[in-house]
Amino acid sequence: MNAAVDRADFFKTLAEKSTHGIRGDYSLADDHYVINQDWGAYTPEQHALWRRLYARQARLLPGRACDLFIDSLARLNAADGIPQFEVASDALAKATGWRLVAVPGLIPDQVFFEHLANRRFPVTVWLRQPAEFDYIVEPDVFHDFFGHVPLLFDPVFADHLQEYGKGGLKALTLDGLAFLARLYWYTVEFGLIQSEQGLRVYGAGILSSGGEIDYCLTHPAPHRTAFDLERVMRTLYKIDTYQETYFVIRNFHQLFTDTQPDFTPIYARLKTLPSLPAGMLLPDEVTFPPN
Ligand code: HBI
Ligand code: FE
């Protein structure tokens, strides 16, 4: 496969997906799409915007984010400004062997999975504009760092994400990426988890969102139903609205063990079944009441 053509092809798709054009500087990226974070280049205004985003989100966490997220976020000391990835990586490596790599933005699936398979989490370096305070389509440094990094301190979740990366590389050879992307979407990005006090959030897309973090737990409109691997892999999702269905795991062990099987026969079976609209419930499915 000609890497150069791949890059051109990737950038064409990226430009189509990006709301403000391609926002990261990919010219300095190496073959793994890794760049230097260049922490010194962030302006005081950007650190101030980060502090506002962080303060708003941190106020919403109690009673909504899972305890593990709240406890791990505290260990990152990231409230005072855009964090230095190397500092966070040192703390993370001691806990679960993960490190962060700075990337200019979305990177090709294959490269993304290779990083995860090697316990490297790609974190976007650029921060949203002030006008995007409440909503942004592409992942920026606030979504990636605030939303995704804290859970990497949990050994079980950290192991799951590495397995997910290995599974992604395999899915690319089996034309199963669409199924795996739905799994990621409804767990790592928008997953809910049970707790003694009721439903809690562990999905990064919700944890970094000002509005969805309450909506997903309390609004009567969306369905909240038990996680089931094949059901999730069949379920379509929308990227620019709140979710119509949230899937609930009992604990991270369930996420790890339920995604252990070889997905090859599952992909083959799912290809013969219709995908499911985001807002539907299957006849036998029980829903969790809003908190
Ligand atoms: N790149 N930087 C970055 N972050 C992501 O979350 C990401 C990506 N590339 C591909 C991708 N996610 C998804 O296509 C996979 O999760 C399926
Ligand atoms: Fe994300």
> Hey, roughly how much beta strand do the residues contain?
5-15%
- Specify the CATH architecture: Orthogonal Bundle
Number of domains: 1
Question: Sheet bearing the most strands, described?
Answer: 4 strands, mixed
Ligand identities: 7,8-dihydrobiopterin, fe (iii) ion
Strand order of the largest sheet: 4-3-6-5
The CATH homologous superfamily = Aromatic amino acid hydroxylase
Distance between the termini: 50 Å
Determine and state the CATH class.
Answer: Mainly Alpha
Q: Which class of secondary structure composition applies to the elements?
A: alpha/beta
Descriptors:
single chain; about 290 residues; alpha/beta; Phenylalanine Hydroxylase; four-stranded mixed β-sheet; two-stranded parallel ribbon; about 10% strand; globular; binds 7,8-dihydrobiopterin; binds fe (iii) ion
Explain what the structure shows.
This protein is of the alpha/beta class and 291 residues long. It is built from 13 helices and six strands. Strand 1 (99-103), helix 5 and strand 2 form a beta-alpha-beta unit. It binds 7,8-dihydrobiopterin and fe (iii) ion.
Topology:
Blueprint: H1 3-17, H2 44-60, H3 67-75, H4 85-96, E1 99-103, H5 109-117, E2 120-124, H6 141-148, H7 155-174, H8 177-189, E3 192-195, E4 198-201, H9 204-207, H10 212-218, E5 223-226, H11 229-234, E6 245-249, H12 252-258, H13 264-270
Parallel strand pairs: 1-2, 3-6, 5-6
Antiparallel strand pairs: 3-4
Helix pairs in contact: 5-7, 7-12
The structure holds 7,8-dihydrobiopterin and fe (iii) ion.
